[in-house]
């Protein structure tokens, strides 16, 4: 179940207080509904929202327009997409795994002009591990909207404003991510990378091409990948997101240096292909873990070739003392076991004797209450029972022999 954060100051916000009662309820719905994504940009059919809130569609559209006019949301009616501009400020993508999940959700979002303000929001709240999603979103915008974004959005974003926002986001992306917090390249490289209004941007490299570039000389392992999966492009995106330079399997890949990770991945992929089965991510991960383990340096046994005679005698004496200590410990355990069994047998024998004495007292008490004839009859029956018992024990002993 996904959770979203709502600040306590939500109700103190002047903009929220200026909304109508239905407007505030709709804002809360957008922050908590099941349609919402980790990025605050999601597809929302007004009919579904109206059904959830038990409103009519006209009332829903009126409240949406109210939130747009107040600047709390941006809405694209053509693609039925809603964007919450302040969402990422309070709901950060905390680690690589969350970023990977957000990238997966981004793939289900249509090519809406709202991708532009989304990129601005991600860059504004950027963290070092945001690099993969910033690059993916930047390439997607440059490829899908090479000539800018036209009019037609509910909040009236025009071509010029939207395009300047894209250029600013691209420049900020260069300054934040490519330098890694070091030298400032925002005044040179970012301006060169900003899209021009007249030239369409080249398409971004495919995920398979990125995977081949990462593998380098080991890219031959990708031959025949189409036999493993129906969608090699999606497969390449997935394995890069897990095991690539900024992958989420940090704990697993920590066992091998960055320069040797492509070789380890290629070795594991070749072993998996040798199994002749369809792609199984869990099985491949086990193979990769084994490959990484094999690449770890093995512990070497101590070499006593250079030790002196005195050191050798000390070592032998230490070994002898250890053997004596182990023998003494084993002997102590054996004696303790013997004493425990002796105590147990003594306790069992005492219990048996107590039971016999108690039974004898009870029999005497019973016999004392009988007259001579009754006592004689009971004694005869007891003698008969004892004879039968002795005969049975004798036959069992004979059969056992």
Instruction: Name the beta content range.
Output: under 5%
The radius of gyration computed from the alpha-carbon positions, rounded to a whole number of angstroms, is 41 Å
Cα distance spanning the termini: 73 Å
**From the structure provided, what is the oligomeric state, counting identical versus distinct chains?**
single chain
In spatial order, strands of the major sheet run: 1-3-2
Q: Shape from CA axes?
A: elongated
| Helical residue percent band | 55-70%
Please give the count of helices: 17
What pattern of helices and strands is seen along the backbone? Answer: HHEHHEEHHHHHHHHHHHHH
Low-confidence runs: 150-195
Give the tally of β-strands.
3
Give a brief rundown of this model.
The chain is mainly α and 401 residues long.
Q: What keywords describe this structure?
A:
401 residues; mainly alpha; 2% strand
Itemize the secondary structure elements and their pairings.
Blueprint: H1 14-18, H2 21-32, E1 41-43, H3 46-53, H4 57-69, E2 74-76, E3 81-83, H5 87-90, H6 96-106, H7 115-124, H8 131-144, H9 159-178, H10 189-193, H11 207-215, H12 232-243, H13 250-253, H14 261-274, H15 281-294, H16 309-368, H17 372-400
Antiparallel strand pairs: 1-3, 2-3
Helix pairs in contact: 2-4, 3-4, 7-8, 7-9, 8-9, 11-12, 14-15
Description:
- It is a single chain.
- The chain has helices spanning 14-18, 21-32, 46-53, 57-69, 87-90, 96-106, 115-124, 131-144, 159-178, 189-193, 207-215, 232-243, 250-253, 261-274, 281-294, 309-368, 372-400; strands at residues 41-43, 74-76, 81-83.
- The chain has 401 residues and is an all-alpha fold.
- Among the domains are: 8-193, no CATH class; 229-294.
- The longest helix has 60 residues, at 309-368.
- The chain is elongated.
- Mean pLDDT is 78; it is low at 150-195.
């Amino acid at each position: 179940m996904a959770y979203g954060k709502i600040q306590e100051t939500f109700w103190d916000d002047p903009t929220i207080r200026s909304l109508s009662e239905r407007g505030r309820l709709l804002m809360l719905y957008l922050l908590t509904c099941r349609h919402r994504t980790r990025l605050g940009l999601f597809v929302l059919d007004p009919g579904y929202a109206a059904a959830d809130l038990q409103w009519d569609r006209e009332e829903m559209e009126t409240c949406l327009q109210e939130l747009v006019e107040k600047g709390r949301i941006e809405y694209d009616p053509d693609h039925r997409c809603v964007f919450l501009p302040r969402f990422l400020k309070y709901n950060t993508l905390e680690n690589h795994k969350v970023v990977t999940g957000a990238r997966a959700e981004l793939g289900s979002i249509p090519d809406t002009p709202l991708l532009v303000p989304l990129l601005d929001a991600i860059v504004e709240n950027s963290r070092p591990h945001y690099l993969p999603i910033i690059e993916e979103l930047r390439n997607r915008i440059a490829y899908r909207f090479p000539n800018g974004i036209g009019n037609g959005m509910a909040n009236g974003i025009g071509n010029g404003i939207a395009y300047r926002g894209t250029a600013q986001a691209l420049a900020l992306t260069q300054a934040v991510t490519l330098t890694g917090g070091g030298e400032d390249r925002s005044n040179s490289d970012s301006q060169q990378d900003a899209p021009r209004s007249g030239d369409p941007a080249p398409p971004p490299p495919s995920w398979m091409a990125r995977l081949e570039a990462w593998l380098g000389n080991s890219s031959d392992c990708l031959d025949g990948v189409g036999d493993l999966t129906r969608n090699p492009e999606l497969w390449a995106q997935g394995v890069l997101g897990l095991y690539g330079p900024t992958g989420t399997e940090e704990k697993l890949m920590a066992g091998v240096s960055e320069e040797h990770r492509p070789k380890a991945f290629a070795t594991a992929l070749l072993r998996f292909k040798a199994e002749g089965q369809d792609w199984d991510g869990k099985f491949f991960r086990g193979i990769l873990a084994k490959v990484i383990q094999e690449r770890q340096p093995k512990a070497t046994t101590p070499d006593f070739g250079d030790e002196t005679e005195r050191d050798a005698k000390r070592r032998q004496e230490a070994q002898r003392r250890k053997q004596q200590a182990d023998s003494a410990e084993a002997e102590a355990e054996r004696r303790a076991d013997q004493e425990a069994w002796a105590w147990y047998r003594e306790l069992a024998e005492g219990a048996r004797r107590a039971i016999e004495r108690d039974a004898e007292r009870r029999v005497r008490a019973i016999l004392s209450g009988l007259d001579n004839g009754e006592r004689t009859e009971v004694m005869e029956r007891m003698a008969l029972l004892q004879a039968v018992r002795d005969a049975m024990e004798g036959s069992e002993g004979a059969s056992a022999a």
